[in-house]
Amino acid sequence: MNVIILPSARERDADANLSAFVAKGRASKAFGVVDFDADVWCDVQLSKAKRITAGNTGPKQLHFLVGTGARGAEDKGALAKPLNDFVKALLRLREEARPQHIENHRVMLRAVRHLHAIMEELNYDPCRLLPRHFDAAARRAVAMETPSTAYATGKFLAEIVGWINQHGVGRIRIEWRNVIPRPSNDDRISEDAAKRRTDKMPSPAALEALPKIAQLMNSTTLPADLIRMRTVELLVCGGWRINELLTIPADCEVEEGNVGDEDYRYGIRYFAEKGYGPDIKWISTPLISVAKRAISDIRRLTQDVREDAKFIFENPGKHPMPVLQGDADELIQVADMAAAFNTTGPIMTGICKTRQVNLPARGKIRRGDLACALLADVPVVPAAFPLKLHQFMFLIRENEMHARRGAVPGTVRTVVWEMISDFITGAEGVQNVFQRYGFSEPDGTLITVKSHAFRHWLNTLAQEGGMSQELIARWSGRKDMNQNSFYDHVSGADLAKKVRGMIESGGLIGQVAKVRETLPPIERDAFLATQISTGHVTDIGICAHDWQLAPCPVHGDCATCGEHIIDKNNADQRAAAERQLEQVESMLAIAEAEAVDGTLGAPRWVEAHRRKRIGLLEVIAVHNDIAIADGTFVHLGSKGSDGR
DNA sequence: CGCACGTTTGCGTGGCACTA
DNA sequence: TAGTGCCACGCAAACGTGCG
């Protein structure tokens, strides 16, 4: 005898409600025109724009597939029905109810995949879902994801419960709340967290190598390398997030005061994340010259592309290449077009083919077709972003960063973060810049740096007050770190400690030491701590200025600076001072000649050089003074012809 | 005003597409 | 046909905000 189990009324309702829900989803206009039954929704339209990130210009997709991983993973089957249809309807209705960024929908899909994984026994029927199934999905998320992601997944599972209840899709009303705890961020101080932080820092070998590579680059360096190297230098100077840097305007420099003045500042405008808020990153004094060089080089190397982008903006529908201007219907020989594109016939044909430009006659290209195709792949900047494309600093040609392909004339592309990543991190089959220039870790392994590392590094330096020691020694002061000096590889704070110790033991002479002696013993330590709280090594001595409090008041002119300490008879420092004196004297001779000729500003220039000369002579006099023991730290105090 | 919350963002990864 | 730059998606967490 056959037993026929009739569905209960509640079950019939649930099934009917699911059908109605899916029908509603099918009818929805959310996401624009998509094939509802396709496993992948291509070119999803969203009413909420994504923030401009340099590489984020293409169409968006939603994958209704099992399994995770980047595109192309082999085990990606479609989500089983009827869950599949339910999810599609769910995404459309939630987008309709409240527009979201594409990532938000993808997180929802991720939560659904966890649910899918435990629904085989239910034949993937959402009507049969019970609280324990959500528990199982949540457990799966906790097991597979990090705490913060698992928490987010739990939240989306709870949202699914809400939709099921609201539309009567479940056979019973499901009572389920997200039980996955949100991780607290107390973790910052744990040892694990500290280790994670140091893992993110650039290695000492990387920090040593970068200034050297920067110096090795010259006029013969490929633009692709120079642009990327200067970009990395900017990361060192400012610690931006990579996309904040790559979206700076070409007109980004901000200066306050005059170069040489005490309150001179140099900054770079950029758009902070979230809301595109404009902001200025003020560059630490010792790095201003590095930043200026980087900006000037990048601007120069990207100028052509920017001009093309501007032309396109100002002449809608027209292409800037002369060969593409004129009668749109004119047929041009492939060979002639190739010559204009500075390439060969076959590659020219390839450029057309890629852009689906058909050749109407054998070996001939219709001018208008190619112009249209090239204009169509110019990146589109979201209207909400405060810059037009031609105002971007980082503009290049298609394939400009390609080692083996030629840059395609007449194209406009943005520099994307992966290009910088390949440059400093490398990838399978891609040598990074450290490899190419022959630098490696002390143990011979590969140096790799991640773009965010510089941000961590600058933050850490700022916290430890060691900014000046590191930055100046590497980028602005001495050309090479002297491996033998006792003060190398110590933090600014340690160096200051050393100097204070020298004062206390009588090993330092000069103004600070004199003042200290006039104080009651109980106040001496506190006085020294305020006077010399940090330090860094310069070409000709030790600087006691705290760069955290104020930029360099004399702009690196250490010889005339009252905060400078001489290490008596240190051979390197003495040689550097003598070399500087030589240069100053020859510059002074020129300056004096120009002052006589009446060149504008020359008298001031002469005065500056005279002051520097006097300072250097005093420094050398200290090194020569037989009354001072070698190794004594000598603090010269205020000096200079104007009595500063 | 402080904390918890929801959401947007950056960064990592892997492979397709396209040039030479 | 070989090789890799460029691109898209997933993951984790940093971010701004809103609530108590």
Helix/strand layout:
Layout: H1 9-27, E1 40-41, E2 62-63, H2 83-97, H3 102-117, H4 131-144, H5 147-166, H6 191-200, H7 204-216, H8 223-238, H9 242-246, E3 253-256, E4 265-271, E5 278-282, H10 288-314, E6 331-333, H11 334-340, H12 345-354, E7 364-366, H13 367-376, E8 395-398, E9 408-414, H14 417-424, H15 433-436, H16 453-464, H17 467-476, H18 492-504, E10 508-510, H19 511-518, H20 521-531, E11 536-537, E12 542-543, E13 564-567, H21 571-597, H22 602-624, E14 633-635
Parallel strand pairs: 10-14
Antiparallel strand pairs: 1-2, 3-4, 4-5, 6-7, 8-9, 11-12, 12-13, 13-14
The structure holds a DNA duplex (20 and 20 nucleotides).
In the residues, how many domains can be counted? 3
Total number of strands:
14
Low-confidence stretches: 69-75, 185-194, 465-495, 546-553, 598-602, 638-644
Tell me the radius of gyration.
33 Å
For the biggest sheet, the summary is: 5 strands, mixed
The share of residues in extended strands comes to: 5-15%
Shape: extended
InterPro entries: DNA_brk_join_enz, Integrase-like_cat_sf
Keywords: DNA recombination
Organism: Devosia sediminis
GO molecular function, one term: DNA binding
3D structure, described in words:
GO terms for molecular function: DNA binding. This is Integrase. InterPro entries: DNA_brk_join_enz (IPR011010), Integrase-like_cat_sf (IPR013762). Keywords: DNA recombination. It comes from Devosia sediminis. It is a single chain. By secondary structure, the chain is an alpha+beta fold. It has three domains: 9-185, no CATH class; 204-436, no CATH class; 465-635, no CATH class. 46% of the residues lie in helices and 8% in strands. The chain has 22 helices and 14 strands. Strands 10-14-13-12-11 form a five-stranded mixed beta sheet, with helices on both faces. Strands 3-4-5 form a three-stranded antiparallel beta sheet, with no helix packed on it. Strands 1-2 form a two-stranded antiparallel sheet. A hairpin with a 4-residue loop joins β11 (536-537) and β12. α2 (83-97) packs antiparallel against α3, α3 packs across α4 and α8 (223-238) packs across α10 (288-314). The chain is extended. The chain binds a DNA duplex (20 and 20 nucleotides) through residues 50-51, 53, 55-58, 60-61, 63, 68-73, 100-104, 106-107, 110, 145-149, 152, 155, 182-183, 185, 241-243, 273-275, 344, 346-347, 350-351, 353-354, 398-399, 401-406, 413, 416-419, 421-422, 425, 427-430, 450-452.
